[in-house]
Design a protein that fits this description.
It is a single chain. The protein is built from 1 helix and 25 strands. The strands form 6 sheets. Strands 1-2-25-24-23 form a 5-stranded antiparallel β-sheet, with helices on one face. Strands 3-4-5-6 form a 4-stranded antiparallel β-sheet, with no helix packed on it. Strand 23 and strand 24 form a beta hairpin. It is mainly β and 288 residues long. 5% of the residues lie in helices and 52% in strands. The radius of gyration is 18 Å and the shape is globular. It has a single domain, classed as Neuraminidase. The longest helix is centred in the N-terminal third of the chain and has 14 residues.
Length: 288
């Protein structure tokens, strides 16, 4: 564990004031903390970079949705100018963030990139009613989905569609959720009546599914090739260096109904979301 990471870890736990506990998955043991935007009834955590900067979204007291960045113990709200709602879904090591925003009117949503404080609209030209930008790597390559049905990759000013194979007659339903600095991509596809998590490397698609599960989603990937996600919409999982799959169980493993891991950085810090009968919060899982 690096000195920089340990210092940030201390700051995170001091500000979040968690009741920590641990669980072992393979050789990695985690401490957990809840993440909740101050005063928000609902908090969603969507990503983390290698400097332990966390992004997500929250509902205010009137249930309007805003994005946020959590850095060194401080929450900062993010709102696309003029939008009725904003969600921050991904962050890279340069501090660039991506996500989606909605304008007035039905089905009027768009992806965005914020670079050096300036917002840019991300709209796949093939989209009929909306684009969502889910992930971005250090090179600035963005992945996401359009029309809630097809995956896209935006690189060097050009959009290309990237869909996982489906059975004959099935409608396109692919979502791309994350990309690492090597260009590996994770997502899920609706195939054969179930959702199947996958990762893509060198244009080859590989599936990642928990044993005994029905539906799987692959939501985040780091530069080690570690993948996180959830299965059956109720339990998070982590696969270290894909091919060594291990379920880490539900995150966090205490007082939860459903959960899903959404992001992992190089130090194997994991973020995600969980629900109880009373609230919906994000979580932070830090290797001990």
């Amino acid at each position: 564990m690096s000195v920089r990471f340990f210092s940030l870890l201390v700051a995170l736990f001091a500000t979040l004031a968690p009741a920590t506990f641990s669980q072992t998955s393979m050789s990695v043991t985690y401490n957990y903390a809840s993440i909740s935007f101050p005063g928000a009834p609902v908090t969603h955590v969507n990503g983390i970079n290698n400097s332990n900067v966390i992004v997500g979204s929250y509902y205010d007291s009137q249930y309007f949705v805003h994005g946020f960045i959590y850095r060194a113990g401080k929450y900062t709200a993010v709102n696309f100018p003029g939008a009725t709602m904003t969600e921050v879904l991904g962050i890279n090591d340069n501090g660039d963030i991506v996500g989606m925003y909605q304008l007035s009117g039905a089905l009027n949503f768009h992806g965005f990139l914020r670079h050096n404080g300036s917002f840019t609209k991300i709209d796949d030209p093939r989209a009929g009613f909306g684009t969502i930008a889910f992930g971005i790597n250090k090179a600035g390559t963005i992945v996401g989905s359009y029309d809630n049905a097809q995956g896209f990759v935006y690189e060097n000013g050009t959009y290309r569609t990237l869909n996982a194979p489906q059975l004959p007659g099935e409608p396109h339903q692919t979502q791309l959720n994350g990309i690492n600095d090597q260009g590996w991509i994770v997502g899920q596809v609706f195939k054969g009546g179930i959702w199947r998590g996958f990762w893509v490397v060198n244009n080859q698609i590989h599936y990642i599914e928990a044993a005994g599960s029905t539906d799987s989603e692959a939501t985040g990937i780091n530069s080690r090739g570690d993948i996180v996600g959830c299965h059956d919409i109720q339990a998070g999982f982590v696969s270290f260096a894909v091919g060594n799959y291990a379920s880490a169980g539900k995150f966090p493993p205490q007082q939860r109904l459903v959960s899903c891991a959404s992001g992992i950085n190089y130090a194997r810090v994991i973020v995600g979301n969980y629900s109880t009968v009373k609230n919906q919060n994000g979580f932070l899982a830090v290797p001990r």
